[in-house]
Structure formats: structure tokens, C-alpha cells
Amino acid sequence: MQDKCFVFPTIDYNVLGHRQEATPWQLKDICPYCGCVLDSTNKTVDHIPSKALIDKPYPANMAAIPCCTSCNRRFSLDEEYSSVLLECVKQQSFDSNVFSRESIKRTVLHTPSLLETVRRRVRFESEDRFSIAPDDDRFKAVLLKLVKAHLRFEDSMFLIRDDSIRLSFDSIDNMPEPDVTRFLTPFSSTLLPEVGSRALESVMIIQEDNTRQIRYCSPWICYQKDTYSFCVAVTGDKVKILLHGFLCVSAELFESTN
Ligand SMILES: [Zn+2]
């Protein structure tokens, strides 16, 4: 499934330069998740994406943004839960013996109750079809956090409220072909990313033959093949994430608080 991604403009994350820190002109003293003021007593580093969602070895240039210790702690349990949920859905099973990710096997060995929690939230309807309980706020919270983190890091968006993000997700196997193609097609715009933003590092120029118009494409960035790829619009209002090669996550801001 992931290989489909590579017929579209894609950049290997590892070719991008130093990304461990936000660029100097980005606001560093406000938590992007709760909006609190960061100081030496509550400031910590949040990796994008969370290490719970990817596998070792991690990229050497893992992106990170400052956030508060309270948010970091609050999300870490939800990220652990979500990583177990994704593995169950991917393997179509709640049996940890069939899991392929060693880190998830260790997690459920350490916290078996997580499997029970996931079992109550996920239903397998048929082969390759599943549903996640609509009130699964823990999973949604992790997806919303990823969206905010990417927009903060790539486009320097400031503080984004949950209720200003239109979020949707579905399995690539459940989606009709035109929707899959639309999802995998990178964002493009006649506008360039803001000078100094991270998005400017990966932008590509494309020319549409029929109009001879120049457009700027925000390619997919392949963070880890088969695990995590993302695409952030240069307009700073849309994010797409392909999680574990099957979950297509789309998010769009419909009311910016930037
Ligand atoms: Zn916070």
C-alpha cells in the first residue's frame, strides 16, 4: 500500500537537514497544545511524530517542538494506547502473538489492560473493514496532536483549537480508488511557503503543461517507509498523514486562530 505513495512526489525525511529544533523565529515559549507559557520549570521536548507511533531506528534528525510537561505526560498514555489500536487494526486481531511490532508486544505484555480497552473500541466488520468507536477521544486526541505539531513545525502555526480542525480518517482499503488518488496526491498551491518556514525546505516546483502555470507542490515526506508519511500544505491549513501504510488521516483547518 505504501508503495502507491511513491508514484507521487515524495521526499525521504532523512535527506532533510537539521530539524531537531523549531526555527529561531518560531514562537518557542508557548505550548502548542494548551497555550500555556513555557519556562524552565515546565518546558520539555515533544518529538514529531511520537516515538510510540514509529519503529527503531529513529531518524537522526527527528523533528521536535517545545511543549509543556503536562501535555507531554497527558498525551504519552494516549499515544501508547493508539499504537496498540493501530497494530490490532493492521493485524486484524487482538492477539499479541500475531503483532509484528516488537515494541507493541512489549507494551501489551507490560500493560495487558490496553488490549481490553482497544477491544472495546474496535470492531472488525469483515476482512479489511473495521470501525473505531466514534467516541474514542483518546485516538482522536493523538491524531489532532499530530496535526497541530506538523502545522506548528512546518508552517509555524501558532495555537490551533481542536474545534477548528476538520478531521477524518479511513483505511486505504475501504476507500474508493478516486479517493485514494486524491489522498495520495500532494498539496499544491500558486503560493510559496513563508520565507524561513520549514515547509520551504521541501517545496517542489511543478509546471502544469496545459496552462504553463507554475505551482508549488508540498511533497509527501516519507518519515519511515510503511510506518509514517506526511504531507503539509504550504498554505498552512491542511495536513495528510499515512499511518502504518493503511490509515489515511486528513485534517483541514476551517477557522484559523493563527
Ligand atoms: Zn501544554
List the helices and strands and how they pair.
Elements: H1 2-5, E1 10-12, E2 43-48, E3 63-68, H2 69-91, H3 102-110, H4 113-121, E4 122-126, E5 129-132, H5 137-155, E6 165-171, H6 177-184, E7 187-189, E8 204-208, E9 213-218, E10 220-224, E11 228-232, E12 238-243, E13 247-253
Parallel strand pairs: 1-10
Antiparallel strand pairs: 2-3, 4-5, 6-13, 7-9, 8-9, 10-11, 11-12, 12-13
Helix pairs in contact: 2-4, 2-5
The protein binds zinc ion (ZN).
What does this structure look like?
The protein has 258 residues and is α+β, with helices and mostly antiparallel strands. It has one domain (2-253). Helices cover 28% and strands 26% of the residues. The protein has six helices and 13 strands. The strands form four sheets. The chain has a six-stranded mixed sheet with strand order 1-10-11-12-13-6, with helices on one face. It has a three-stranded antiparallel sheet with strand order 7-9-8, with no helix packed on it. The protein has a two-stranded antiparallel sheet with strand order 2-3. A hairpin with a 3-residue loop joins strand 10 and strand 11 (228-232). The longest helix is centred in the N-terminal third of the chain and has 23 residues, at 69-91. The two termini are 35 Å apart. Bound molecules: zinc ion. Zinc ion (ZN) is lined by residues 31, 33-34, 36, 67-68, 70-71. Zinc ion binds at residues 31, 33-34, 36, 67-68, 70-71.
Ranges where pLDDT stays below 50 over 5 or more residues in a row are 1-6
Main-sheet strand order equals 1-10-11-12-13-6
Assign a percent range to the helix content. 25-40%
Number of helices: 6
Mean pLDDT across all residues, rounded? 84
Write the H/E string, N to C. Answer: HEEEHHHEEHEHEEEEEEE
Task: Describe the largest sheet.
Answer: 6 strands, mixed
Name the beta content range.
25-35%
Broad structural category: alpha+beta
Taken together, the total number of domains comes to 1
Q: What's the alpha carbon Rg, rounded to whole Å?
A: 18 Å
